[in-house]
Amino acid sequence: MNEPRTIRWSRRAKTVPAMLGATAVGLGLAPLIVAAAAVADLLVGRPRLPRVRVYLFVLQYMVNDSAEILLAPLLWVQAGLGTRLNTKVSIARHQRLQSWSIRLLEQRADRLLGLRVDVSEVDQSALEPGPAIVISRHASLFDASLPGLLYQKLGYNVQGIIMAELLADPGFDILYGRLGSVFIPRDDGETARAAVSAMTANADGQTVYVIFPEGRLFHPKVRDRLLARLSEKDPERGERLSELSNVLPPRPGGLLTLLAELPEADVVLVDHRGLDRVGRLADLTKIVPVGEPIEISVRRLRRSEIPTDPAEQIEWLDELWLELDRQLAG
């Protein structure tokens, strides 16, 4: 999204102080809040203190976000006052910060929430080489970080197609924007496609492009609403996807743009088992600590297997999502 500078800085003038202030308050009041949460947990017979665990994880997220905000000006100065932000050296610095943040949150998710990511069964050959288009279903706040976890360990630059609502998170806004991710409007397809097209201009073998075709977190009510809307707009497609029960109908626009702009790139499907129960933050206090590991599966779809006609690509995507849905149901 080619955002005017005035709009960007007007937003950050609000979100940056809000995040830094909330983090300072969260840290300052942590002893009192942790004590109160512990008492509340014990009073309802939950000795493993799920409220305490969730609070500490959220606080870690806020600390990471604030660190990204505070380090961003230093990285900007190192990049020649912003004139060399797109150089390999500057990108590498930002990638190290991004990798630190993601890995630290992965560790905290494991130790505090019991969310341990198991990559032992992942076929590493399915991840390489780049460039690649990475797609995944979106069932949890946590699954958005899975492609980054997998690819950053291999030294890839991970660029995401992200809904513009996440610009409200200032650390995400600054860091991911500088690393080439784009924030797209939900209901302006033309603007979104232009932004996705522009992000691939400098595609290389060390970059992967991540998109969640559903566009939002799964919820049964959302699925029903989207299927009803799809049936009105495109009855044939609505009928084809009417049996979906565990995933949302995919939005093809962004993926089709990537396929058109990256004609040699394979598609990598990343899926998971175990995160469906923690779709939203409120779900965490009900099940934390989670005892079972999060299993990750990766499947590489060679470009020769994917149709070249856009209409056929939509059918291909729909069939892929129907297959995912059947696997989840089984």
Walk me through the structure.
The chain has a single domain (5-329), classed as Glycerol-3-phosphate (1)-acyltransferase (3-Layer(aba) Sandwich), CATH 3.40.1130. 53% of the residues lie in helices and 12% in strands. It contains 12 helices and 7 strands. The protein has a 7-stranded mixed sheet, sandwiched between helices. Strand 3, helix 6 (170-178) and strand 4 form a beta-alpha-beta unit. The protein is globular. The mean pLDDT is 91.
Helical run tally: 12
Order of helix and strand elements from N to C terminus? HHHHEEHEHEHEHHHEHEH
Per DSSP E runs of 2 or more residues, the count of β-strands stands at 7
| CATH class wording | Alpha Beta
**Low-confidence runs of at least 5 consecutive residues:** none
- The total number of structural domains is 1
Residue share in β-strands: 5-15%
Which architecture would the CATH scheme give at its second level?
3-Layer(aba) Sandwich
- Average per-residue pLDDT, rounded, comes to 91
- Give the end-to-end Cα distance, rounded to a whole number of Å: 39 Å
Query: Per the principal axes of the C-alpha atoms, what is the gross shape?
Result: globular
Strand order of the largest sheet: 1-7-6-2-5-3-4
* Structural class computed from helices and strand pairing: alpha/beta
In angstroms, what is the radius of gyration? Answer: 20 Å
The main β sheet shows up as: 7 strands, mixed
Helix content: 40-55%
